[in-house]
Amino acid sequence: MDYENIYIEEEGSIATITIDRPKKLNALNKQTIHELHVAFKELEEDKTVKVILITGSGEKAFVAGADISEFSDFGIAKGGELAAKGQEILFDFVENLSKPVIAAVNGFALGGGLELAMACHFRVASYNAKMGLPEVTLGLIPGYGGTQRLPQLVGKGRAFEMITTAAMISAEQALDYGLVNYVVEQEEILPLCKKLAGKISNNSSVAISQAIKAVNAGYKSELNGYAVEIDAFGKCFGTNDFKEGTTAFLEKRKADFPGS
Fold this sequence. Notes:
Lyase 2-enoyl-coa Hydratase, Chain  A, domain 2, 2-enoyl-CoA Hydratase, Chain A, domain 1, six-stranded mixed beta sheet, four-stranded mixed beta sheet, alpha/beta, globular, single chain
């Protein structure tokens, strides 16, 4: 499809999605959420892509939040539908993607922006990044998974503090909390993300997809993470990647994984 609010760049096995609404500080509206869903779905199906990066255009914001003008007049039913639909087509969709997604948090990541970053498999931030969930200042709570993913990443107490005070934290605090993996200068954020993506791309994409499934299962109450891990581990033995990986190890050479 023709995108209005995002653009995609591919470099070898790495695809970068950039949210491009600089005048709105890359705020998420319905159109942008839909475009992101389509983009992630297309990249998921593209066998040449092994890792996906997501960032915001400009130097001020990753995503500064949701577009409040779109839902300021909603009632209970529409509000619930907004959260359910958004979680289904974007936030949960990204979390459960079989390919690793790295968030390059290059500025403000607030509300839905932080929730999008948290749905990614891990995060790298620039020093100017500020992160927070300010929804209670609007008479709302985080509705795109923020009340669930933030405690998983930073712990219950810190999550409660961030949500109830609506305070922003710095990139350095986010690193200390375990919310991001690295903090670098703005110009270094995409090169570092691409370096990490390159390391990931050298490994078995089939095994990585099973690892994502197993790790995520540990955070879902309806699943037994250990049982999912055992099943995923067993499935790896039936793959061509397993045959290539073990053969390459025994032959003392670098593996060339077929991705099947």
